[in-house]
Structures are given as C-alpha cells and as structure tokens.
C-alpha cells in the first residue's frame, strides 16, 4: 500500500488510540479478575505482552488512519477496525468461557454474577459503536460541505450503530444468566457468527464511504443495506425466535426484535423504490457519457458535412500529380 501523506489529524489519532486501548484494558481486567491465585500472574503477563504487540501495530495503523480523516478514503480505518475487533473478540471469548466454567462449577462461590456480566455487555455496546463512529469521522470530511449530504451519510451510519448493538445483544445471551443454557454447537455457532458480522459489516460501511465523492451515488451505498437485511435483520430475528420458542429463553430482547421487523420493512421499501427508479437510469447514464466525452460527439457531427469537400480536394490534388507523372514518362 502506498504510504499516506505525512499530515495527520493528531487529536483524532489520540482519541482513537485511547478508546481502543481503554476497551482492551477493561477486558484485560475481566480476564485477570476471573483467574484468582497463582494463575493471575501468568494471565497478567500474557495480556500485557499481547497489549504491547498491539500497541506497536496501533502506533502505525492509527497514524495512517488519521491521515485519511479529511478525505473520502477509509482503507486504513478498515484495517484498524479489523485488528481491534479481532483482538477484542478473542478476549471476549476467553471471558465467556470463564463464565461458562463458573456456571458448570456448582461448588464455586460467586457473588451476584449478573452484575459483572451485564457490565460486560454494557462495555461492548458502548465501546464498539464509539470506535466505529470515530473511525468514520463524518464531521471531518472536507468535501461534504452541504449539510444535507453529510446528514444523509450520518443517517446511514446510524443504521450501522443499531446493527452493532443488535449483534452485541445476540452475543451477550451467551454469557448472561440463563436457565439450562444452550447446546454447545449452538453456542459456538452463535458466537462465531456474531464475530464474523462484527469483523465484516462495519468494514463494508467504511468502504462505501470511501467510494463517495462530492456527489453521493445511491447505488454505491446499497451493499451494506442488502447485507445487513439478510445477515442481521432476518437471521437474528430467527435466532431470537428460536431461542424463545425452543429453549424458553424469556430474556430475549423484544425491543431488538421489534427493531428488526421495522428494519426489514424500511429496507425492503427502499430496495423496491430503488428498483423502480433503476429503469429510468439508462438515459441518465447516456447523458453522463455524453458529458464525459462531449468532444467526441461534436467531432462526429462536424466531420460528417466536411467529408465530401475533403474527398474532392484530395481527388483534385491527386489528378495533377498523376498527369505530371505521365508527362515525365512520355518525355523519357
């Protein structure tokens, strides 16, 4: 990749680094607190070594992402989000496994475990959206001077934030208090499904921001709504309904289920409306092609009436040359 220009937005870089490292440090506190006794020292050394390696990578990636703040490019922001979620979800997985072992250990004395588990859910539901909004940095885009264009992209990012909260809510059902719990294969499938969505979908939204210029092009902003409609609004609705009907999990968020129903209706209507306007797009595309290459069309129109004079002139110029050549031949 080509290194970016040296000018960076230092406040944005510092804010991004502080948010990322704070959330990771809080997850480290969960891991250390769940391992009492002599194991705590080993866990503390392991998480500190991992954080040092991540800080070294963050030192460069955050600076590169800060150089893109005032432009439409969000390539390094996508890389930073991928690394952040990759490390964060690994730590969340170990925390979840520790909670699961505590539930299986009947003799373990746990004082009010629901508070720390719901605090973990609150931590993830606050840190992930804030980091994503910081990386998108819509308010710093210099080319989006009109207020209407900026608000249009901000409204699209609002749906991304809602989808992040939806994914965290589905994933949080694994470590929050349950009755008998879910089967092992269901838990693993649910966790890693949410893991993949957290890695991929925000990067898709950031790539859509990268493809925008001065004029917002609607068809370049339709990939994320289609993917989120299929992978979040429909599938998570079936996941919650299945847990509610099959396993009797009464803690299923009815608010998020209602959000998914509303999102399905809204996004489906927007897709239908987009398809209605799609047949009228070829004339507009032809006009755009004519604007892109107006000189070519003008040259074609202007050269057609000038074809005959040019041919006549070429014929007149060639006839004397042939006669002159014949006279020379006779003289020889």
TrEMBL record:
<comment type="similarity">
    <text>Belongs to the TMEM121 family.</text>
</comment>
<feature type="transmembrane region" description="Helical">
    <location>
        <begin position="12"/>
        <end position="32"/>
    </location>
</feature>
<feature type="transmembrane region" description="Helical">
    <location>
        <begin position="38"/>
        <end position="63"/>
    </location>
</feature>
<feature type="transmembrane region" description="Helical">
    <location>
        <begin position="116"/>
        <end position="137"/>
    </location>
</feature>
<keyword id="KW-0472">Membrane</keyword>
<keyword id="KW-0812">Transmembrane</keyword>
<feature type="transmembrane region" description="Helical">
    <location>
        <begin position="190"/>
        <end position="209"/>
    </location>
</feature>
<keyword id="KW-1133">Transmembrane helix</keyword>
<dbReference type="Pfam" id="PF14997">
    <property type="entry name" value="CECR6_TMEM121"/>
</dbReference>
<dbReference type="InterPro" id="IPR042314">
    <property type="entry name" value="TMEM121"/>
</dbReference>
<protein>
    <submittedName>
        <fullName>Transmembrane protein 121-like</fullName>
    </submittedName>
</protein>
<feature type="transmembrane region" description="Helical">
    <location>
        <begin position="221"/>
        <end position="239"/>
    </location>
</feature>
<dbReference type="InterPro" id="IPR032776">
    <property type="entry name" value="CECR6/TMEM121"/>
</dbReference>
<feature type="transmembrane region" description="Helical">
    <location>
        <begin position="75"/>
        <end position="96"/>
    </location>
</feature>
């Amino acid at each position: 990749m080509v290194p970016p220009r040296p000018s960076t937005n230092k406040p944005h870089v510092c804010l991004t680094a502080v948010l990322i490292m704070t959330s990771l440090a809080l997850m480290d506190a969960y891991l250390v607190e769940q391992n009492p006794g002599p194991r705590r020292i080993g866990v503390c050394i392991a998480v500190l070594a991992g954080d040092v390696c991540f800080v070294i990578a963050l030192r460069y990636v955050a600076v590169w992402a800060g150089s893109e703040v005032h432009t439409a490019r969000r390539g390094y922001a996508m890389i930073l989000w991928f690394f952040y979620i990759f490390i964060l979800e690994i730590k969340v997985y170990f925390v979840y496994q520790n909670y699961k072992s505590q539930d299986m250990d009947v003799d373990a004395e746990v004082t009010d475990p629901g508070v720390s588990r719901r605090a973990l859910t609150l931590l993830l539901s606050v840190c992930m959206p804030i980091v994503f909004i910081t990386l998108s940095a819509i308010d710093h885009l210099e080319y989006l001077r009109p207020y209407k264009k900026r608000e249009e992209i901000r409204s699209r990012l609002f749906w991304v934030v809602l989808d992040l909260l939806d994914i965290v809510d589905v994933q949080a059902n694994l470590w929050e208090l349950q009755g008998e719990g879910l089967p092992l294969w269901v838990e693993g499938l649910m966790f890693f499904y949410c893991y993949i969505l957290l890695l991929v979908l925000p990067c898709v939204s950031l790539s859509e921001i990268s493809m925008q210029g001065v004029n917002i092009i609607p068809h370049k902003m339709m990939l994320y709504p289609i993917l989120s409609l299929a992978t979040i609004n429909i599938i998570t609705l079936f996941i919650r309904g299945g847990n509610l009907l099959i396993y009797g999990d009464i803690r299923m968020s009815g608010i998020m289920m209602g959000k998914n129903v509303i999102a399905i209706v809204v996004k489906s209507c927007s897709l239908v409306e987009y398809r209605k306007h799609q047949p009228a797009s070829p004339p507009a595309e032809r006009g755009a092609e004519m604007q892109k290459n107006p000189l070519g069309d003008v040259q074609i129109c202007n050269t057609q009436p000038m074809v005959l004079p040019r041919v006549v002139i070429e014929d007149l110029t060639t006839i004397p040359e042939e006669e002159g050549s014949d006279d020379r031949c006779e003289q020889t």
